[in-house]
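Predict fold of Fe2OG dioxygenase domain-containing protein; 376 aa.
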Amino acid sequence: MNSGFCMVSSLKHQEVQSRFFDPSWLQMQPHVPMSFVWPKECVVDANEEFQAPMVDLGGFLRGDEDATHVAVKLIRKACSTHGFFQVFNHGVDPLLIAQAYQQMDAFFKLPIDRKVSIRKTPGSVWGYSGAHADRFSSKLPWKETLSFPFHDDNNTLDPVVSTFFNSTLGQDFQQAGVVFQKYCESMKELGMKLLELLAISLGVDRLHYKELFEDGCSVMRCNFYPSCQEPSLALGTGPHCDPTSLTILHQDQVGGLDVFADNTWQTVPPRARALVVNIGDTFTVQALSNGRYKSCLHRAVVNKYKERRSLAFFLCPKEDKVVRAPEDIVRRDGTKQYPDFTWSNLLEFTQNYYRADEATLHNFTKWLLSSKQQTL
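Predicted 3D structure, encoded as C-alpha cells:
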C-alpha cells in the first residue's frame, strides 16, 4: 500500500471499506505519499518573523477609553494591510485553554476506527476529518481535525457542545463536552467584544454587528498536525483565506502558522497567553468593511520532529441573515463592492463546490451571481 491511507472496516451501523488518513502508519513511511505533496510555490520556506500587532485588551474590557483608542488604532492598521493581529489580557482563563488541549489530545489518541466512526458526512461541517480524504485526492493536508458547532441556545437544558460529545462519543467524553462548552462560550464572548472594536475602527456604532452575530452558529475546530518525515514537501493546511468572519486561534508552542505578507511567507511565532485573530472573507467584503479590510492568505506548516496542535474558533453570522456592508460605509466609499449574500450561501459553496484558497471570494461571487441568474 503506498497511497498514504489505511483500510478501516468497522464503522458504526455499516461494514464498508474506505480510505482514511492514519498518521501512525504514515509516520513509519520513509517518504511522503504523492497525494500529500504540494506544489513548490506553496511550500516555499518562511524565513522571517511576521510582525503582527500585539493588542492589549485589558483596558478596553475595563471600559478605559484611552486604552480602547490605542487598541482600535492597532486593529485598524492591521486589518487595512493584512488582517492579522494578536491579543493578550483577553479574559480567557489559561487553565481552560490547557484543559481544552488535554481533551483534544485524548480524542486524537483514540484508535482510527473510533475516530472515523464520527467522520464528517458529505456537505457537513461537523465531525472528524483525516486529511480531508473524503473530499479530495491530491494536495491533501497533513492533519486531523475535529469540528463541532456552537451557538447560544437559552431554550434548551442541554448545551449544544455537550450534546455533540455525548451523542457522538458517549460517556467517555462527557468531560470533553463540558470543557469545550465553556471554551466556546469564552471564545464567543471574546469574539463579540472584538466585533465592537472592529466596528469602532470603521466609524460605525460599536454594536452595529451584534444582531448579525449574536445568534449565529460558530465553528469550533481542533487541529492535530502529526510530525512529518519530509516537511519540505507537505503542508498541514494549504494556502487559503478563511471564508468565515473572524478566527480566534490558540497555537501550541511548537509553532507552524505562516502568513503571506509583503509578497513573502512569514512565520507567526506563538506568544505565551496570546491569541491570534484574523478576519475572514465574510468580514472583508460585506459585514464589516465593504472591501476596506483584508483577509490574508495563510497556511500551516509541519514539523519533522514534533507534532503540533491548535484550537480554532470561527465566529460566523446567523445563517439566514443577509450579510451586507453598513450603509454609512457604502455611502462614504461611493460604491458597493459585492452583492448581498447569506452565510449559508458561502457555507454551501465552500462545503459542496469549492476548496477554500486565496480565490474563494472571487469565485464565490461569480457562482452566486450565476445562481441568481439561473433562478430568474
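The radius of gyration is 20 Å.
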